[in-house]
Amino acid sequence: MFEPRYYRNFGLEEIARKVCDRERLTIADGEKLFACPDLNAVGSLAHEVRKRLYGNQAYYVVNRHINYSNICVNGCRFCAFSKKKGDPLSFELSEEQILEKIGANGHDLTEIHVVGGCHPDLPLSFFEGLIGKIRELQPHAFIKAFTAVEVAHFAKKEGIAIAQVLARLKAAGVKMMPGGGAEIFSDRVRSLLCPEKLDARGWLDCIRQAHEMGIKTNATMLYGHIETRLERLEHLVALRELQDRTGGFVCFIPLSFQTANTPLGAMEPPTGVEDLKTIAISRLMLDNIPHIKAYWVMLSAKVAQVALYFGADDFDGTVVEEKIGHMAGAKSRQEMTRSEIEGIIRDGGFLPVERDSLFRKAGRDFLETVDSKV
Ligand code: V47
Ligand code: SF4
User: Fold this and answer.
1) Could you tell me if 283 and 307 lie in one domain?
2) Does the Cβ of 117 fall within 6 Å of ligand 2?
3) Rounded to whole angstroms, how far apart are CA atoms 264 and 109?
4) Which of 5, 81, 96, 142 is most deeply buried (CB count within 10 A of its CB)?
5) Which residue range(s) make up the domain with 42?
6) Are residues 69 and 156 in the same domain?
7) For the chain, how big is the Rg over CA atoms in Å?
8) Tens of pLDDT along 79-131?
């Protein structure tokens, strides 16, 4: 690493120097990295940062996803999950059905990840009650629930401020928010693909408020559709700027676009090289977000394993039941066991470390240790 001659071949010597000296990369640096024809040159820089932070450890979580409903008032053109009320493919789980799913293997769960569409009717009190019941059933599980898009939808529906929704959900037992709904912040792309959805400013503002109330969140970026690489870089920089202010992001998840059953179904999905480059450049640009997730559901387990050499340090989790990617054609399985994940991580040459949602290991505050290194 940092063999200047190697990086000079690709015009990356100044970027390599910055990475070595822990200097922040600019959007122009990001463009150079995307333009580099040698995947390994980009990947090796990201791997160096990842090794500096976590050595050969790779994280995973024993979790379960719950999609309470796919009924959604929005119609994002990249989404095959959402359906209108009355559509034969729409579903809406009752509280009992949700608790039954969680009860089936709940004793073993570290994290419960709850998200759904922007439902036209369900009141905030339904979700408060649901979170309370999940908490009673699984008092030790970490409840990571509701994206900024859902939170803003609840606020609009109830006619109350976002801060009030966040305070009520926090009181009910939501400990953290997932990173979904960020898509790509570009107004150009959003006006074409998801004009009804909470806009970029609204997403960032809701997340800022959550962070200021002590609710940590993740962040995502949906890539590989109609966005440009520059728009991806601008998305990363917007997250980096918010993180400078709040420090509330725990993990960044690049989401590889699954095309099937969406109005963009004729598009080719991102290639493996594009996936790995995007993950690596995310690691390099996001110098203040501790973790980068290789989400095996969207990437496939094979690409996710390789991504651990391209800047990712987390493999995500057991998941159990996934609908958003699979309804859009994801070929990955529905579930992985703890031992399967550990096997994949070990086979990749890393040490598997089971974590909670904040990347803490049992008995010690892991995040604090990690935060101080970033
Ligand atoms: O919000 C929708 C995206 C997100 C498609 O925070 C699509 O720990 C790919 O946010 N192809 C849901 N992506 C997934 C998500 C997530 C997953 C795992 C962990 C965490 C976390 C968050 O998926 C949605 C949307 O941005 N999405 N359609 C699609 N066709
Ligand atoms: Fe609804 Fe989310 Fe799908 Fe958009 S991505 S249509 S907000 S479920």
Assistant:
1) yes
2) yes
3) 35
4) 81
5) 4-50
6) yes
7) 20
8) 999 999 999 999 999 999 999 999 866 568 999 999 999 999 999 999 999 99
Residues 308 and 254 in one domain: yes
* Farthest-apart Cα atoms in the chain, separation: 62
Q: Are residues 13 and 130 in the same domain?
A: no
Give the β-pairing of 57-61 and 351-354. Answer: parallel
pLDDT digits (tens, 9 = 90+) for 145-189: 999 999 999 999 999 999 999 999 999 999 999 999 999 999 999
pLDDT, position 105: 60
Cβ proximity of 323 and 67 under 8 Å: yes
Element (H, E) at 272: helix 272-285
Same domain as 14, residue 143: no
Residue of 78, 79, 184 with the most ligand 2 atoms within 8 Å of its CB, for mutation: 79
Mutation choice for ligand 2 from 68, 72, 151, 203, CB with most ligand atoms inside 8 A: 72
Q: Whose CA is nearest to atom 8 of ligand 2?
A: 117
Residue bearing the CA closest to ligand 1, atom 15: 180
Same domain, 27 and 168: no
Q: Is 72 in the pocket of ligand 2 (CB under 6 A)?
A: yes
Of 180, 228, 227, the residue nearest 207 (C-alpha)? 180
101 & 28 share domain = no
Tell me which residue has its CA closest to atom 18 in ligand 1: 295
CATH of residue 96's domain is 3.20.20.70
Residue 74 CB less than 6 A away from ligand 2? yes
Cα four-point dihedral sign 115, 189, 220, 213: negative
Are 8 and 135 contained in the same domain?
no
pLDDT value for 210 = 98
Q: For the chain, what is the domain count?
A: 2
